Structure formats: structure tokens, C-alpha cells
Amino acid sequence: MAAAIDPQALQARIASVNVLVRSHAGEIELVGVAGDGRVTVRYTGMCAGCDYRPVTTAGTVEPALLDVAGVTSVAVAGPRISEAACARIGATLDQTAARERAVRIVRQIEHDNRIALP
């Protein structure tokens, strides 16, 4: 069984991710949290219909949310791409260490804004 997710820590992380996503005139919002640690979010604003959502998800949103204790997976409500396409995007991002950079940036935003995660 997955560890319980601290709702405040999750909301703080979403707020920090939104600092980045707002630069594209959008945001993510929490749709739900399952007992197994699966978190579902939805894109809003200009990001809702953006063709680059899968890249933003794989490169920024997913790694930042998976960094929160208890989060085991991240799903996005709305249109999806195939698992094979997700895997290709992930492999490309791993080659450039983009996911690790995204987590470092989000943690720095939290630090700068005094948003502390347990």
C-alpha cells in the first residue's frame, strides 16, 4: 500500500508547478487522489488544448508531482496520447536530464516562496 499523500504538500507542489505553467498562460489543477497514490490533474487555460501538453507533463508536471511523498503515478484528465508516445517522450527527456532539472527548479521556487514541504 502506498504511503498517504499530504494534501498540503501536494497543493504546495501544484502551486509551484503553476509558477512555471503560467508562463504559457495556463495552469494545472488537482482533479483527484486515489488511495494507491495515483494523482490526476487537468490542464486549464491555454494549456488545455496545447499540442505540447505531453511534453510538459513528462518533463515538468509528472516528475515534480512524483517527488511528493506518496505519489505513485500522475494522470492527466482529458485527451491522451499513446503509452508508446509517452515512453518515447520520456526516453528523450531522460537523455537530457530534463526531468531532474524540472524537479530542481520547482524545489527552488518553493524555497524562494517559502513553501516548505515535509
UniProtKB/TrEMBL annotation:
GO biological-process terms attached to the record: iron-sulfur cluster assembly
Domain NIF system FeS cluster assembly NifU C-terminal, first and last residues per copy: 14-67
Native source organism of the sequence: Acidovorax soli
Parts forming coiled coils: none
Top-rank taxon, per record: Bacteria
Molecular function via GO: iron ion binding; iron-sulfur cluster binding
Protein name per Swiss-Prot or TrEMBL: Fe-S cluster biogenesis protein NfuA
Pfam families in alphabetical order: NifU (PF01106)
Gene3D superfamilies: Fe-S cluster assembly (FSCA)
Classification via InterPro entries: FSCA_dom_sf (IPR034904), NIF_FeS_clus_asmbl_NifU_C (IPR001075)
